[in-house]
Specification:
Oligomer: single chain
Radius of gyration: 18 Å
Strand order of the largest sheet: 7-8-9-10-11-1-2-3-4-5-6-12
CATH class: Mainly Beta
Low-confidence stretches: 1-39
Distance between the termini: 10 Å
Mean pLDDT: 83
Shape: globular
Number of domains: 1
Number of helices: 6
């Protein structure tokens, strides 16, 4: 049972929080729109507040206008184990992005360690503990990479929401509700709290009031068995990093062996 739980943790910990259904299927910012008190959905139907959507739109615009960045993430997943009791798993990542077509990520935590490389031509996943890797030709942009990696390799990245050229359009697609829920202080920063739901996910986004960058994304996967819950915290943003080209291309370590993508990312774990 332990092996099965770890395998599930690997796959679910790599889920892209608010865009999982899309992936599988297919400095100072202005003050936010004034809200007298945290809004709540009415009993009569869903709420789509323009002020809340504007916060998400500004976050998307900030990300789109950032040509390269480094960010750290800390993810948690709560999912039912073999007895039905919810278990919590943690994953940490260091992510480097250069738009429109470069990505490097080092993922560590309760699931097996995992490195990912994309350079606009190929994507490679590497499991350093057992020195196993999988490589495949890939589409030319980050926008195309996310659904491609999900469909062809079973890879869903916890930070995918910050990769899209237009993350606002992706996050709000099929939204059934969006409302402002106040603010929280995270790592000393005021982060505006937006509740955003789709038929698949009940999500929440905290957005830095000064930088418009995401502080944290959380939610519940409504249509996944057991309705697992997740959080992904984004911190230590670096918006003008020096990123050498070699960072995005896998160099095979001595003794590393090739393996099928789906075996590497979960289906073949024993």
């Amino acid at each position: 049972m332990q092996a099965n739980i770890r395998r599930a943790a690997l796959m679910l910990a790599l889920l892209s929080p608010l865009t999982v259904s899309i992936a599988i299927g297919q400095d100072k910012a202005p003050a936010p729109a004034p809200v007298s008190s945290p809004a709540r959905p009415s009993a009569s139907g869903p709420v789509l507040e323009p002020g809340a959507l504007d916060l998400v739109k500004k976050m998307g615009a900030k990300l789109a206008a950032t040509p390269a960045f480094l960010v750290r993430t800390r993810s948690s997943l709560e999912a039912p184990g073999g007895t039905g009791q919810f278990l919590t798993f943690f994953t940490e990542s260091v992510v480097a992005v250069e738009r429109p077509n470069k990505l490097s990520a080092e993922i560590r935590g309760d699931a097996p360690p995992f490195d990912f490389y994309f350079n606009g031509k190929q994507m490679t996943a590497y499991e350093p503990t057992r020195k196993l890797y999988a490589t495949a030709d890939a589409p030319p942009t980050l926008d195309e990479l996310v659904p491609f990696a999900a469909k062809t390799a079973g890879i869903l990245l916890p930070f995918a929401d910050v990769l899209y050229r237009d993350s606002y359009a992706v996050l709000t697609q099929d939204a059934t509700s969006a409302f402002y829920a106040g603010f929280s202080v995270m790592r000393g920063a005021r982060c505006e709290h937006v509740a955003l739901a789709t038929p698949e996910i009940e999500g929440q986004i905290w957005i830095d009031a000064k930088t418009d960058l995401p502080c944290l994304i959380a939610g519940t996967l409504r249509k996944v068995r057991g309705a697992p819950r997740f959080t992904v915290e984004f911190y230590d943003w670096k918006l003008k990093p020096e990123l050498p080209d070699k960072l995005f291309t896998f160099t095979k370590p001595e003794g590393a062996k090739p393996i099928d993508f789906r075996a590497l990312t979960g289906a073949g774990w024993k």
